[in-house]
Amino acid sequence: MGSFSYTKEQRLRKRPQFLALGERGKRVQNAYFIAVFAPAQGKVSRLGVTVTKKVGGAVTRNRIKRCVREYFRLNQHRLKAPVDINVIAKKACCQQESPLLAASLDHLFNRVSEGSRH
């Protein structure tokens, strides 16, 4: 099993990275999240998180981002191949507790893993 870290190299950080992923990526969604994903250009999977102001205030948005990052950190080894993922939170997730969000992310990452096989 690999490391459970979440390093700078594992993050989508710049606007061009998000735009390129949006153009070349596939989309899957469930009740609380949308995932845009594509095979990674490098050797590691990278995560970007988008939570807009319509989801809620700063405290709510930060809680959702922490939940998504923590899920990715603990479960990135389950992805079959290196993949770039942008997880976009829907408005419905602002009222939900962390265990329900984690279950939703589990479902989403399973679909990403199935769709990212080369």
Automatic annotation (TrEMBL):
GO annotation terms (biological process): tRNA 5'-leader removal
Reactions catalysed, as given in the entry: Endonucleolytic cleavage of RNA, removing 5'-extranucleotides from tRNA precursor
Keywords for the protein's UniProt record, in alphabetical order: Endonuclease, Hydrolase, Nuclease, RNA-binding, tRNA processing
UniProt xrefs under Gene3D superfamilies: 3.30.230.10
InterPro entries: Ribosomal_Su5_D2-typ_SF, Ribsml_uS5_D2-typ_fold_subgr, RNase_P, RNase_P_CS
Pfam families associated with the record: Ribonuclease_P
SUPFAM superfamilies, A to Z: Ribosomal protein S5 domain 2-like (SSF54211)
Keyword tRNA processing recorded: yes
GO function terms (MF aspect): 3'-tRNA processing endoribonuclease activity; ribonuclease P activity; tRNA binding
Record keyword S-adenosyl-L-methionine present: no
This enzyme's EC code(s): 3.1.26.5
GO cellular component: ribonuclease P complex
Subunit structure: Consists of a catalytic RNA component (M1 or rnpB) and a protein subunit.
Free-text function comment from the UniProt entry: RNaseP catalyzes the removal of the 5'-leader sequence from pre-tRNA to produce the mature 5'-terminus. It can also cleave other RNA substrates such as 4.5S RNA. The protein component plays an auxiliary but essential role in vivo by binding to the 5'-leader sequence and broadening the substrate specificity of the ribozyme.
Homology family: Belongs to the RnpA family.
NCBIfam families, alphabetized: rnpA (TIGR00188)
Protein name: Ribonuclease P protein component
Taxonomic source organism: Desulfatibacillum alkenivorans DSM 16219
Gene that this sequence comes from: rnpA
